[in-house]
C-alpha cells in the first residue's frame, strides 16, 4: 500500500531521483509518461499527485497545456455586459440579488449576448456553460471582485489654517428632541431601531418635525472640529447661519478660531443652495461643490462626523435631563468642542487642533464683521421692480418705501430681495462701479385707520407732507432758477406761475444769434463761381413779362407817391387806364414808381 507523504518535502535522494525522472519524461514517447510517474510514486512511497507537485519545483510540468489555452469563445464585450447586469442588480450593501446564471439567461433571452461556440467535429452551435463564461470573465479581469475594488484617490493638502473648510450636514441618528425650537422642557429621546427605521415610515414621519440636524465643519489644515445643531431639516438658512457663526469672532477667549476661509467644500443639496452660493460670492469665498456619490472628497469631515457621534453624542443619554432644547444642546456641544480642540492631539501634525490653528499668520487671518452683519449678505434671488410715483416699489403684493435709495427716480428699476437671516425684511441691491454691492433696507407701507389709507398719506387741510426731491426734481429746480434769473427758487416759481411761457433768461437769449454771426462773418466773402456744363438739350423758352392789373398798379403808384411826400393826382388814374387798358407790364410799373419818387416838381408824367 502506497503511503501518502505529500505533506513532507522530498529528501535529497528523492530530489536527485526527481531530476532523473524529469529527464526521462522529456524523452518519453506519447503514452509512456503515466507509467514513469506511477513507477516513481511506488519507488518513493508517495502518491502520483505528490510526484506531480514535487516535479513543479524542478520547473517541469507533466500536464501538457491545452492548445486553446487562453482563448475564449465569449468576447470581452459580452463579459462586460454580464458584469454590468450583475453590478446594476447589486444592493448598496454589496449583497447580490441576482446570480450569474440569472444574468446570463436574461441577456441571452433578450439577444444581448450569444456566448456560444461551434463544435469543429459536427459544426453544431453549443451554448457556453456558466462556468466557462465565469472563467472568461476572470481571464478578462471582469470579475465582480475586481469591479468592486475601490478607485485610487488623490490626497489633498491645505497650506495654512482657514484655507479650506469642509462642511457637512446630516440627521442625528441617535436621538431626537421633542422640545424642539420652543424648548418646552422635554428631554432628548434616543431613537429606537426597532421603531424608527425605513420599514416603518409612519414612525419616522411622526418625529420628522423633532429631528435634530447636525452641522459639522473641519478646518482642513489644523483639523479643528466645529459643531452646531439645528431643528427639523437641512436648509440654506441653517447653512448660512452656521457659516456666519464660524466666521465671526467669539467672545470666549479660549475659542480662537474665526475669520474668512479661502474656500468652503460642501456636498450637493441644501448646503449648496442659491442662498449659500450668493452669500459666498458676496463674501469672496470660493464654494466647491463635490460630485454626488463621492464622500471621499470630504473624507475629513466625514470622519469628524463619526468621531463626534462616538465622543459626544454617544454619551448624551447620561445627560438627558440637561438637554431640553436646542439652546442647551448647542451650549453642551460648544463646551465640549472647545475642550476637545484644545486638549486632544491630532495624529497627523502631533499638535492639538487649536494649537495648529494658532499657527495662522496675520496675512492669512481675514477678520470679518459680526455674525448679524454677515447675515445681511444672505438674500433671496433678486427681482426687478419699477419705482412708482409715490416713490414706492411693490414686491409680492406689498409696497415698500424706497425714497432713501440714492439716485432713485420715478420709473427707474430697483433690484429687490428678501434677507431671510435678517428678519426676513426686503432690501434694495445697488451694484457699485467696482462690482461691490450696497444693500438698502426698505420699510413696508401699511394701511391704517378705518378707511385703510396708506400711512404715507397726509390728512387734507391738517398736514403737509412733501416727498423728498429726486435727482431729477433737484435738476429741474436748478434749471428753473437759472432760466428766470431769479435769486431764489421761490422767486423763480412765482415767475413761472405768472407766465408759463416766460422767455428763458429773461430775453437775454437770442435764438437767431448764430445766424447773425454767420451773416456778419461772410458779408465780405464772395464764394467762387461754380463751374458748370450747360444743358443744350432744353429748348429755348421766352419768358413774357408779368402783367399787373390796372387798378392794382394805380394803387401801387399812389402808395409810392404819398410815401415820397407828394400829392396824388386823380387824373393819373384816368391816364393809366387809357394807356394800359389790359394791365400794366411789370417793367413799366417799375419805371412809373421810380418817376414818382425822384426829386422833381410835383407833376405826374403823362
Q: What does this entry show, briefly?
A:
The protein has 606 residues and is of the alpha+beta class. The protein contains 20 helices and 20 strands.
Molecular structure report:
The chain has 20 helices and 20 strands. By secondary structure, it is of the alpha+beta class. Helix 1 (12-27) packs antiparallel against helix 2 (33-44), helix 9 (236-247) packs parallel to helix 10 and helix 15 (471-484) crosses helix 16 (489-498). It is elongated and about 180 Å long. A five-stranded mixed beta sheet has the order 7-6-3-8-9. A four-stranded antiparallel beta sheet has the order 10-13-14-15, with no helix packed on it. The protein has helices spanning 12-27, 33-44, 48-56, 76-88, 100-109, 130-139, 144-147, 201-206, 236-247, 274-283, 299-311, 326-343, 353-357, 371-374, 471-484, 489-498, 513-521, 550-563, 571-579, 586-597; strands at 116-118, 125-127, 164-171, 175-176, 189-190, 212-219, 225-231, 263-266, 286-289, 383-386, 392-395, 398-401, 413-419, 425-431, 437-442, 444-445, 447-448, 453-454, 547-548, 584-585. Helix content is 35%, strand content 14%. The model is unreliable at 180-185, 192-207 and 599-606 (pLDDT under 50).
Amino acid at each position: 500500500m502506497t503511503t501518502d507523504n505529500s505533506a513532507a518535502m522530498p529528501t535529497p535522494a528523492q530530489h536527485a531521483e526527481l531530476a532523473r525522472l524529469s529527464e526521462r519524461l522529456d524523452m518519453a514517447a506519447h503514452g509512456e509518461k503515466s507509467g514513469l510517474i506511477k513507477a516513481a510514486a511506488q519507488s518513493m512511497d508517495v502518491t502520483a499527485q505528490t510526484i506531480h507537485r514535487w516535479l513543479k519545483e524542478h520547473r517541469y510540468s507533466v500536464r501538457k497545456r491545452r492548445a486553446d489555452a487562453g482563448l475564449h469563445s465569449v468576447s470581452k464585450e459580452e463579459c462586460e455586459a454580464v458584469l454590468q447586469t450583475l453590478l446594476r442588480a447589486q444592493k448598496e450593501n454589496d449583497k447580490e440579488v441576482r446570480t450569474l446564471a440569472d444574468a446570463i439567461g436574461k441577456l441571452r433571452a433578450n439577444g444581448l449576448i450569444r456566448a456560444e461556440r461551434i463544435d469543429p467535429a459536427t459544426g453544431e452551435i453549443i451554448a457556453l456553460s456558466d462556468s466557462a463564461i465565469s472563467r472568461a470573465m476572470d481571464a478578462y479581469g471582469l470579475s465582480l471582485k475586481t469591479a468592486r475594488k475601490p478607485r485610487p484617490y488623490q490626497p489633498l493638502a491645505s497650506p495654512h489654517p482657514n484655507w479650506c473648510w469642509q462642511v457637512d450636514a446630516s440627521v442625528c441618528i441617535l436621538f431626537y428632541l421633542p422640545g424642539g425650537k420652543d424648548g418646552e422642557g422635554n428631554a432628548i429621546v434616543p431613537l429606537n431601531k426597532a421603531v424608527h427605521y425605513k420599514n416603518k415610515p409612519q414612525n419616522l414621519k411622526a418625529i420628522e418635525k423633532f429631528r435634530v440636524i447636525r452641522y459639522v465643519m473641519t478646518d482642513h489644515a489644523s483639523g479643528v472640529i466645529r459643531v452646531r445643531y439645528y431643528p427639523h431639516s437641512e436648509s440654506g438658512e441653517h447653512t448660512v447661519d452656521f457659516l456666519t457663526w464660524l466666521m465671526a469672532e467669539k467672545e470666549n477667549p479660549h475659542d480662537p478660531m474665526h475669520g474668512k476661509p479661502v474656500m468652503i467644500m460642501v456636498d450637493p443639496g441644501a448646503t449648496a443652495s442659491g442662498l449659500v452660493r450668493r452669500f459666498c460670492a458676496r463674501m469672496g469665498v470660493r464654494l466647491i461643490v463635490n460630485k454626488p456619490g463621492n464622500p471621499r472628497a470630504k473624507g475629513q469631515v466625514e470622519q469628524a462626523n463619526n468621531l463626534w457621534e462616538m465622543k459626544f453624542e454617544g454619551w448624551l443619554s447620561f445627560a438627558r435631563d440637561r438637554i431640553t432644547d436646542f439652546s442647551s444642546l448647542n451650549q453642551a456641544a460648544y463646551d465640549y468642542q472647545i475642550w476637545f480642540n484644545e486638549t486632544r492631539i491630532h495624529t497627523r501634525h502631533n499638535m492639538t487642533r487649536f494649537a495648529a490653528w494658532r499657527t495662522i499668520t496675520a496675512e492669512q487671518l481675514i477678520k470679518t464683521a459680526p455674525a448679524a452683519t454677515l447675515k445681511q449678505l444672505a438674500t433671496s434671488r433678486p427681482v426687478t421692480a419699477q419705482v412708482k410715483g409715490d416713490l414706492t416699489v411693490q414686491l409680492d403684493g406689498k409696497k415698500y418705501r424706497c425714497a432713501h435709495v440714492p439716485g432713485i427716480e420715478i420709473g427707474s428699476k430697483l433690484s429687490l430681495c428678501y434677507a431671510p437671516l435678517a428678519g426676513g425684511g426686503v432690501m434694495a441691491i445697488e451694484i457699485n462701479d467696482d462690482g461691490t454691492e450696497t444693500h438698502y433696507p426698505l420699510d413696508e407701507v401699511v394701511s391704517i385707520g378705518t378707511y385703510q389709507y396708506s400711512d404715507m398719506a397726509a390728512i387734507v387741510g391738517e398736514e403737509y407732507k412733501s416727498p423728498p426731491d429726486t435727482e431729477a426734481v433737484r435738476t429741474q429746480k436748478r434749471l428753473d432758477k437759472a432760466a428766470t434769473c431769479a435769486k431764489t427758487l421761490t422767486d423763480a416759481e412765482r415767475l413761472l406761475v405768472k407766465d408759463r411761457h416766460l422767455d428763458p433768461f429773461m430775453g437775454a437769449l437770442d435764438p437767431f444769434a448764430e445766424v447773425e454771426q454767420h451773416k456778419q462773418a461772410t458779408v465780405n466773402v464772395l464764394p467762387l463761381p461754380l463751374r458748370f456744363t450747360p444743358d443744350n438739350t432744353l429748348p429755348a423758352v421766352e419768358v413774357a413779362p408779368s402783367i399787373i392789373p390796372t387798378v392794382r398798379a394805380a394803387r401801387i403808384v399812389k402808395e409810392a407817391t404819398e410815401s415820397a411826400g407828394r400829392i396824388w393826382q386823380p387824373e393819373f388814374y384816368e391816364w393809366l387806364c387809357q394807356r394800359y387798358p389790359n394791365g400794366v407790364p411789370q417793367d413799366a410799373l417799375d419805371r412809373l414808381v421810380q418817376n414818382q419818387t425822384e426829386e422833381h416838381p410835383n407833376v405826374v408824367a403823362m
